[in-house]
Design a protein that fits this description.
The chain is α+β, with helices and mostly antiparallel strands. Helices cover about 20% and strands about 20% of the residues.
Length: about 525
């Protein structure tokens, strides 16, 4: 039962609520409970063909030869598509906001970098004909050394997974191999601490396992346009990505989304639409491309694995005086969204706690594993798990109640965050107090009386002296630009200011103003 606690921040809460606390019926509820909701795969188009992908059986290998001759002669096959047929074969998901370099082929050409990477697409009259023809494609591999561990991937002499990033780490602002956070002097903090605790936390990849697998249907429309029925969670993101890969104006495509049968972040990547549209362009007929359950489970992008080291210095009275974090995000073979997850993670440190000395290093690392993607708070969820486990261990170490330990260290209004921003509208203390009340967890009266609005600021608002680190010379900017329409003039990017380095955003064909959550700026 929903309970509104109006006693907390009463002056910030409007009692004229329209929905909260009411039993409002969801707009799509009747369709779901009666089985009449329409999904992309409910569209059965006349003359529809079916696409099946031949995937790599090797985690890292050079493609010596791809023989499609027998597949092309198979009954019912209308077209076999290779990487050379894709107009702009290299792409990266966040290139639409000018963040990162194109590093992932739609269909592999020279190498494969993870087991399951798409190599060839077969288009046939029926799903069975497509599957049987795909089984006849012969690929001759030259196996290469592979790396599957994030820390091993960063060691000297490790196999290069992704030649776009030869150090196996994403490059930020053409300069940095990871995201940093520096606030105060963490070594001095550890020297002052009564106890120091260092722990390692590990999260494995997680498959989203939606009931509806990734898929789309593309069909020729009038005036040289194409209509696309898709399960994507990011309709316009997918549309613009297809426009880039297929080198066509974005208004060539009419994307129709609708009900998504489970996504959770796993349907943000544009996985099926480019090949479905390309097949429709090459055959002149509607084409359906849907992941089978095995493809979804083994080759669909998961939440990326994370490895996190947390080292804390704590005083006997419970105050955390230093926190050092080193974290590695396993991006898999290509960037996708992992570089953004790292940005979010660095922005979230050190959790909702006031700590005078903070030191963070967060890496986006390439390995020969399935490329990772978004999933429910990715970049923050795993770090929160690690930090809250660490908080329990610290409380146990000094013999303090874990609820009271959190209240003591929580942000208060006016405190200085490690990112040099003043904490405002904080509420962790009240949340812990209510949680303790509901769980009948006893906390002492002095902690019951504490408030997020009291005892903040002052000395807690100071920006501590932070040792400066040497800065390497900045190379000439070479950030790529993306144009979605043919013939659009693309001006070279202006020299970005320094510090902080920042690149201008590209100009999409539709001309709409958007907000970049990566750079925090409006762009056109």
């Amino acid at each position: 039962m929903l309970e509104l606690r109006k006693d907390i921040f009463a002056d910030e809460r409007d009692d004229n609520l329209n929905e909260v606390g009411k039993g409002t019926q969801r707009q799509d509820m009747l369709g779901h409970v009666t089985g009449t909701s329409t999904y992309f795969n409910d569209h059965k188009l006349q003359g529809m063909l079916h696409l099946r992908v031949v995937r790599s059986t090797q985690p890292h290998a050079r493609l010596r030869r791809i023989d499609i001759s027998e597949a092309e002669r198979s009954e019912g096959v209308r077209r076999v598509i290779r990487g050379s047929d894709v107009p702009r074969n290299l792409n990266t998901l966040l290139s639409l906001i000018n963040f990162g370099k194109d590093d992932e082929p739609t269909l592999a050409v020279d190498k494969v970098r993870y087991k399951g990477e798409p190599i060839v697409a077969v288009v046939a009259d029926t799903p069975r004909a497509a599957a049987e023809a795909a089984a006849k494609v012969r690929v001759d591999y030259e196996s290469l050394p592979a790396v599957f561990d994030v820390e091993e991937a960063l060691r000297p002499g490790a196999p290069v997974v992704n030649e776009t990033y030869p150090k196996n780490t994403f490059t930020y602002h053409e300069r940095y191999d990871h995201q940093k956070l520096r606030f105060g002097d963490v070594e001095r903090g550890f020297a002052q601490a009564d106890h120091v605790l260092e722990q390692r936390y590990q999260m494995s990849p997680i498959e989203h396992a939606p009931v509806e697998t990734n898929g789309s249907i593309a069909a020729p429309d009038t005036n040289g346009r194409y209509v696309v029925y898709t399960s994507t969670q990011a309709l316009f993101f997918s549309l613009d990505t297809c426009a880039k890969i297929l080198d066509l104006p974005s208004n060539t495509f009419h994307f129709i989304g609708g009900t998504v049968g489970g996504g959770f972040g796993g349907k943000v990547d544009t996985l099926t639409e480019p090949l479905a549209i390309l097949a429709a362009m090459l055959t002149g007929r509607p084409v359906r491309y849907v992941f089978g359950r095995e493809e979804e489970m083994q080759f669909g992008p998961p939440r990326g694995a994370e490895r996190i080291y947390v080292k804390d210095g704590v005083m006997r009275d419970g105050r955390i005086v230093a926190r050092q974090i080193r974290a590695y995000f396993d991006s898999g073979a290509y960037t996708r969204l992992s570089s953004y997850a790292v940005v979010k993670c660095a922005a979230h440190l050190p959790g909702p706690y006031t700590i005078p000395n903070v030191h963070g290093d967060i890496y986006c690392v390439y390995t020969n594993r399935t490329p990772a993607t978004a999933m429910r708070g990715f970049g923050i969820t795993g770090m929160d798990f690690a930090l809250e486990c660490q908080m329990d261990k610290l409380a146990h170490l000094i013999g303090m109640d874990p609820m009271e330990f959190r209240i003591l260290n929580a942000y208060r209004d006016g405190d200085m965050k490690a990112h040099r921003r003043e904490a405002k509208n904080t509420a962790l203390i009240e949340c812990v107090q209510v949680a303790a009340e509901k769980a009948k967890w006893p906390i002492r009266e002095e902690f019951r009386r504490m408030s997020s609005r009291k005892d903040g600021g002052g000395a807690r608002a100071a920006v501590p002296s932070t040792p400066r680190e040497p800065v390497s010379a900045r190379p000439a900017p070479a950030q790529q630009r993306t144009s979605y329409d043919r013939g659009l003039p693309v001006s070279p990017p202006p020299e970005p200011p320094s510090p902080p380095p920042q690149s201008p955003a590209p100009a999409p064909a539709h001309g709409a103003t958007r907000f970049s959550s990566v750079f925090g700026t409006r762009r056109r």
